[in-house]
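Consider this one:
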Amino acid sequence: MAERRRGPGAAARRRGRLALIRRLRRTTRQWTVLTKHRSSLRQPRNQQKYFTMDVDDEENMSSSSTDVKENRNVDNVPPKDGGGQGAGEGTQLSNGSGSSSRKRPLEEGNSKFRPKKRKKTPGPVLPKNALMQLNEIKPGLQYKLLSQTGPVHAPMFVMAVEVNGQVFEGSGPTKKKAKLHAAEKALRSFVQFPNASEAHLAMGRTLSVNTDFTSDQADFPDTLFNGFETPVPSDASFYLGSNGDGSFSSSGDYGLPSSAVVSSLSQSPLPTPSSYPSTSGKNPVMILNELRPGLKYEFLSESGESHAKNFVMAVAVDGQTFEGSGRNKKLAKARAAQSALASLFNMQLDQTPSRQPIPSEGLQLHLPQVLADAVARLVVDKFSDLTENFTSPHARRKVLAGIVMTTGTDVKDALVISVSTGTKCINGEYMSDRGLALNDCHAEIISRRCLLKFLYTQLELYLSNKEDQQKSIFMKSERGGFKLKENVQFHLYISTSPCGDARIFSPHEAAQEDQGDRHPNRKARGQLRTKIESGEGTIPVRSTTTIQTWDGVLQGERLLTMSCSDKIARWNVLGIQGALLSLFVEPIYFSSIILGSLYHGDHLSRAVYQRIAEIEDLPPLYTLNRPLLSGISNAEARQPGKAPNFSVNWTVGDTGLEVINATTGKDEMGRASRLCKHAFYSRWMRIHAKLSSSLRSKILKPNLYHETKQGATEYQTAKECLFKAFLKAGLGAWVEKPIEQDQFSLTV
């Protein structure tokens, strides 16, 4: 009875199992055929024929054909012949890569698997990834596995590829993704365009919007990309556009070669570009690589303390080497590229008005930005040489200054005259009544004193013999005394804006003042300011005239020293030669003032000459000098931390640096500096003994230092005009040192 009860059910189950076995066997036979014929059915891409199926047909396929379904024509690439195959040709399906086809055998009498002929509708073409695009531009690249880190369940691979001599690395959880990231970096570095069509548009080529650079059917990628790889003709001349906005035009022909014009690109002829690609949103490295592809950047040096590192990178362009520095290598690389763009292409990426150079009046022998960058580099390089590549203990500094002399139009012939550092002034109790101490050890003030030392040397050279007269920078003046030879110019470099009025602004809000100073009448604008004794920074002068006395300072009153901005403004009226040398030579002015950082044209010009533009009644040969004002392409990194208490100086001809204790105004051994008043007065007296008949102002018998300076009548008259101009503008009264400082004499 038990067999009879389960008999019908058991029979049904047996039939089901048999049916399942038959289906499995049939499926196995189908897969055997597929596997057997897979390799024989591979065809070239342009010979493949594609078919589509109805949705109902696909749903009726057995579950064993899942792989076939997943690999059906995912690219939706239309066939070239536009039609389907007959039943006798069999069913042919394309996989996603388009590299092989699979045939599904049809059972006799089973028509539901037979494909139907239907019209094809092309779908969207999937874009190529970075690997594919890079391989089209640079075929045959080799990717290398650099490392594999992380646990087994979460590995991290690092792959690298070398393109144009540069190695690009990418990382990812799989080797494929790591390769993809490496390819993306390579594309960004030397192509600089999201896709090829944008590249052609940037090169001035008009291409049809329907042109698809990622299509597998395109048969012209090589010819198009060869247009990028063809070097620009060497005789292509670049010139500044007449619009004056810094854009460039080229007479070179960027048109595609005739072989690149394919029938599928039937449109208007390709125009010759009228300008370079737009620089908006691009950093200097990108722009330079578009103009000169394949450049290599070299790491030169690393200096500074751990909290204030400074890196220097260099790039060689058209036979010239350009350097850039910054707090990291990326910034240094960008500044090197920016320097190259400014020098070779006169391309100023930063069009902010306040950051543009302000040209000087009169003769200009050099391009402003080229001159500024050259002067800065010369001073920094000389300081590097003097401090053993910044490794010396005396390389520590907050501010670096220097003076460079040019004697013609070629900056390569420039000579570094002086280099100095320092940010402190003498403590009042160390004042010297014999002229043996330096009162002001700020870098730019010391550099100017170094220049005085150089001028004395040049006068002595002129007076030595006739042969040396030709080597001297001086020549006889028809008005008496001496003057500089033609085209001799001096350029002052300061690594940051001079203390005082030129530095009283917010650098990160400077862009808000591009339409001009928002507060030109603010009381702080243009005010005379004094330095703080034994400290940094300045404070405005008192509203009433301040007279400093020797005994008052010794008793504890703070010794006041005028700010560097005020002293530079003074030099732009009285000259940099000072009162003593004005008895021998005509006034000498700086041709340019160049800042390594914190440059703001409006504030700097106001501080050094604009605020005293109404100066009147200057004696002959004296004028209000308006030198070139400029920042540099490679702005110097800010020097945080406590300023050292010493100042160093060097003048051309010196064997090494002199180190001065800024608090005492003398060296560490208590000896007088080679730049002190006493040393200069001694040299002046020796020259006076030879030139007493050639003085521009007559002095019968020089005795006291103060009296000799007062004998320079024209100089003293110009100084009074300067002081009146400050008072008339409501900017305060000039504060002078106690007169006892200059009441000393000496004998030759």
Observations:
- The longest helix spans residues 2-37.
